[in-house]
Design a protein that fits this description.
The chain has 340 residues and is an alpha/beta fold. It has twelve helices and twelve strands. The radius of gyration is 27 Å and the shape is elongated.
Length: 340
Amino acid sequence: MVRKPATLKDVAALANVSRATAARALNSYGYVGDETAQKVQAAAERLGYRGNRLAQALRSGQFPLIGCIIGDIQNPFFARIAHDIEVVARELGHNLVLGSSEEDLGQEISLLASLRSLSIRGFIVAPTSSADNAHLQSLVAEHVPLVLIDRVAEGLDCDSVLVDNEGGARKAVEYLIATGHRRIGLLQDDMRIFTSRERMSGYQKALAAGGIAPDERMVSVSQSTVEHAVDATIRLFSQKRPPTALFTVDSLMTQGALLALRSMGISIPHNVSLIGFDDFNLATFTDPQITVVSQPVSEIGRTAARLLFDRLSGKGGPAQKIRFETKLIVRGSVRGQNPS
């Protein structure tokens, strides 16, 4: 027979004290005489009593929790950021509660409401939408520390940690143009998302600077998953005049494009050149290695966590807007093209 866990009532009975006295002795609040406290502790040890310290701490608002809502835990970019935030939190004696919106605004709102019910002290959020952010506005209005990562939200005066998405995309496309490409495809994410809009803007500005007219046939929209990116790439390269080069806006899309091009018998870089935004482990294990726009992922999570803990410690002052530079890492996936 499985033995039931000991309760506070059991401890009080064995120590021959009231439950209120037992609770004070075990949780170190109020006055309890030394002899009585020792009796209660001995009874708890004998019975193997384990109080629900989490529930007690949450009720008192003393449990050291911070919350983080990211876009998609399956995306290596967000997984690394969450890991780094957790490391900093642990170093500072806090615990991290993590949620993934899966790029769904309704889920983000629901997650935030659930986390707030846990008396979490502060939040780090990658907002799904720039405009629909009343749930985040309420945090700022109530002086709950909030740091935005990867994206911003309109009209929200809070700390943020971003990268130069537009500049990074522009570097990539300008490099393709400089090597002779004119039909440059774009594998694009949902335009609700701030980073997607910025990377699209960089793509468009590079084309304009290179005297290339925009062509909607060169743009394929996909959800940010490998599976959807495979389908979007196949659509893009099934045209009569497909792109000679492709720029993908994140690492999952780059991986999907690689799989799709291989399945179609399209060789990189002999038939098509490829640049992806965001570096990833497999980029240097492929043949050829993939040219990427690298962002300092290892700095984003740690910087966001430090900003949050500065606010939690009482640091005032204007909102900190940190934007890291990107770097184009040239490898072997781009080949010169005779303009045509």
